[in-house]
Amino acid sequence: DSGVTQTPKHLITATGQRVTLRCSPRSGDLSVYWYQQSLDQGLQFLIQYYNGEERAKGNILERFSAQQFPDLHSELNLSSLELGDSALYFCASSAYGTGADTQYFGPGTRLTVL
Amino acid sequence: AQSVTQPDIHITVSEGASLELRCNYSYGATPYLFWYVQSPGQGLQLLLKYFSGDTLVQGIKGFEAEFKRSQSSFNLRKPSVHWSDAAEYFCAVGGNTGNQFYFGTGTSLTVIP
To answer: For A56, which of A5, B23, B72, B99 could close a Cys bridge (C-beta 3.0–4.6 Å)?
Structure first.
């Protein structure tokens, strides 16, 4: 158990809808990362937050947004969902959010868009 | 730009045989290198990491990796594979400039009895 929690575990929704994925980092970790894992794209970095502020952005679509709250939990919002958004979404956390930090991964949220 | 290449998409080994998973990186400065393992339906778990010092790094579950700067490689090894090692293995690189973390595309390991 990494100490990172993600809810929900599974999510099934329809195209055009909006969903919110939630992540609670390990106790004491200030940085949260979001990744998308799909069969054709592999593990893609989406976005990183550190202590409430956006720190780095990867291959995140404009339809997706995220935030980190004062209690350090984070939410990833996916809107106008398309079939291609079906994937496993991972959250990871690290202590200081640097490249040297070990990232601890949550169990993931499996999103299915029908 | 930073990048990580795992040349082998899929590897099959017999239980008890030795294993080497390849990882090549591209990074302008001294990289921080990681190996993660993902079991089916699970999140990623850190096996080992290299920051500096001894180029041979020991990790959990009997894995080790060797950093070779001249070859830009960080290959993962295990002397004797167990059936429970069947999983997806990811190499990753991070740096002290910039905050992004780059993962390779992964190598899927199958272990046959």
So the answer is: B99
Across the interface, whether the CB atoms of B49 and A102 are under 8 A apart is answered yes
**DSSP letter for each residue of A42-105:** EEEEEEEEETTEEEEE-S--TTEEEEE-TTS-EEEEE-S--GGG-EEEEEEEESS-STTSPPEE
What are B8-66's pLDDT values in tens digits? Answer: 999 999 999 999 999 999 887 778 899 999 998 788 999 999 988 889 999 999 999 99
What is the Cα–Cα distance from A46 to A76, expressed in whole angstroms? Answer: 10
> Which residues have CB under 8 Å from B5's CB, separation 6+?
B23, B24, B25, B26, B104, B105
Residues of B with CB under 8 A from a CB of A: 32, 34, 36, 42-46, 49, 51, 90, 93-103, 105-106
Asked if residues B23 and B8 have their Cβ atoms less than 8 Å apart, the reply is: no
